[in-house]
Design a protein that fits this description.
With about 525 residues, the protein is of the alpha+beta class. The protein folds into two domains: about 220 residues, Serine Threonine Protein Phosphatase 5, Tetratricopeptide repeat (Alpha Horseshoe); about 290 residues, Outer membrane protein transport protein (OMPP1/FadL/TodX) (Porin). About 35% of the residues lie in helices and about 40% in strands. The chain contains eleven helices and 14 strands. The chain has a 14-stranded antiparallel β-barrel. β5 and β6 form a beta hairpin. It is elongated, with a radius of gyration of 36 Å.
């Protein structure tokens, strides 16, 4: 009888072990999970991200279904700017528990921060449906609506956020201040940052606002409204040509080489700048002097004056430009020109932008005897449309590509119509970042001009003139001091024309010293 009873007790004891041991293991794992989670949150609050990551990973090792650990891993990775990894942990937390609001909320914030506005709004709307009294939901929805251009709806959302939590007023004003700062409206940005200091009790936000104010004040103190540069140089030209792209070559000048002194002055004064608006005036002066006395009639003096006004539109900019040009040849009036037109800059990013320009102009030429006795037949109305795409890289490096269309319409007389044409230009340029303080720049361009009428210089055929102009320019510059630099320059030009008088080739090499202030 006793052996049977002993066996019965052993059986009951085995059942108890089977039931108790897993429960104990579960309790131990649960305790380990909670301990690791709590320690991770402590490290996260101390901004020790690497230690926090280790603790949250250990918590997940203790419980792979720990929704809180996945959530906090996402928070930690987001603070470390590992957006893709953070997104994965937030989604994993929601896969475990779709009603876990903190993960849904922070996923929406993450999407907002990386520019996925549609995904951010979808996530935040789910949070709003579950918890409409959560102020931060309305706050981020308002920021998204403002960024996407829905100003009225944005303001309603931001007002709702402040009504639920008045401490958000400073954060909302801070976001507005940053938008003004990024748009270049520094005056209104500074006023908004100063208001943040009054509205926000948040120490970190206030310190950041003070940092922006200091940057604005430093930039204002360092800015000067004017710029000036002067260049002096000497060039060797193996084929002296006047206005080589679009002019006849006078008898006895083709393939005449010479040394040429060059003077170039340029100045700019920004007379108005406030918030999104700015305006400036620019002037440039060019003079070349040939060493060969027989070429004195080809000494060119050129004056250019421009008035420009711009309006900043976020990362974009729109403007209007007027230009006046006056040139003399051998001391005599040669050409007067006017042009006006809009310009638009489309900023894809701080390092990547596109410029669009249109110009309508008028050119008025004067007769010069004995070289250009019928020069006034070149008077023309001009239209020019161009697009330039620029990519900045490295330190001061850039690559650019441009296309331009130009149309000149002269008169309808026998000699006047020689100057009417349609032109297409393609240009590629590269400026390499400084290497041992030296900067190499390269540019190549090709221009096709198709003239609309038979040319009087092509007798007896009188064909329509067709020119293909190829240019290559290379420059190597190096600073001499804080304000001066020296540059070696080379230009190669080849103009292929179906009419012999306009067919030529030239090389120019030069050494230029520039002082800029």
């Amino acid at each position: 009888m006793y052996p049977k009873r002993r066996n019965h007790y052993l059986f009951l004891f085995s059942i108890l072990l089977i039931l108790i041991l897993p429960l104990r293991a579960f309790a131990e794992d649960g305790g380990k999970y909670n301990d690791r989670l709590a320690e991770g949150i402590t490290k996260l609050n101390q901004k020790n991200l690497s230690a926090a990551l280790e603790q949250f990973k250990a918590a997940i090792a203790a419980d792979a279904k720990g929704v809180e650990a996945h959530y906090y891993l996402g928070v930690t990775q987001a603070r470390a700017n590992r957006d893709k990894v953070a997104e994965g942990h937030f989604l994993k937390a929601l896969e475990i528990d779709r009603t876990f609001i903190p993960a849904r909320m922070d996923l929406g914030v993450l999407y907002y921060q990386i520019g996925k506005d549609q995904e951010a709004m979808a996530s935040l709307k789910i949070v709003e449906q579950i918890d409409p009294g959560r102020a931060r939901v309305h706050y981020y929805q308002g920021l998204i609506l403002r960024r996407t251009g829905s100003a009225a709806a944005s303001q309603a959302k931001l007002d709702r956020a402040v009504s639920l939590d008045s401490s958000l007023a400073g954060a909302i004003r801070f976001q507005s201040a940053v938008a003004h700062y990024e748009a270049g409206a520094l005056d209104s940005a500074k006023a908004a940052f100063q208001e943040v200091l009054t509205l926000s009790p948040n120490r970190e936000l206030s310190e950041t606002a003070r940092g922006f104010i200091n940057k604005i004040d430093t930039a204002a103190a360092g800015e000067k409204p004017w710029e000036f540069s002067m260049s002096l140089g000497i060039q060797y030209d193996d084929n002296v040509v006047l206005d080589s792209g679009n002019a006849p070559l006078p008898t006895g000048i083709k393939e005449k080489d010479d040394f040429v002194g060059v003077v170039y002055l340029q100045g700019k004064y920004e007379w108005f700048k406030k918030d999104h608006w700015r305006s400036d005036v620019q002037y440039s002066f060019y003079q070349n002097l040939h060493s060969e006395n027989s070429l004195d009639d080809f000494n060119i003096q050129d004056h250019n004056l421009s008035l420009r006004g711009y309006r900043q539109l976020g990362m974009n900019e729109a403007g209007l430009i007027y230009r006046f040009q006056y040139a003399t040849l051998g001391g005599e009036d040669y050409m007067t020109g006017h042009s006006i037109g809009p310009t638009f800059l489309w900023g894809h990013s701080e390092m990547h932008f596109t410029e669009l320009d249109y110009r309508y102009g008028m050119k008025d030429f004067d007769d010069i005897r004995p070289l250009f006795t019928a020069n006034n037949t070149r008077d023309a109305d001009t239209h020019r449309l161009s697009a330039t795409h620029t990519l900045l890289f490295g330190e001061k490096g850039k690559f650019y590509a441009a296309y331009g269309f130009e149309k000149e319409k002269a008169g309808s007389g026998i000699q006047e119509d020689d100057w009417s044409y349609d032109g297409h230009e393609i240009k590629l340029g590269l400026v390499l970042p400084p290497w041992k303080q030296s900067v190499l720049s390269l540019e190549v361009s090709g221009t096709r001009r198709d003239y609309s009428d038979p040319n009087e210089n092509d007798l007896p055929n009188r064909r329509k003139r067709e020119d293909d102009d190829l240019r290559f320019i290379a420059g190597l510059s190096r600073p001499l001091s804080e304000h001066t630099q020296i540059s070696a320059q080379y230009l190669y030009q080849q103009n292929d024309s179906n009419i012999a008088i306009f067919d030529y080739e030239r090389n120019i090499v030069g050494l230029i010293v520039t002082a800029a202030y």
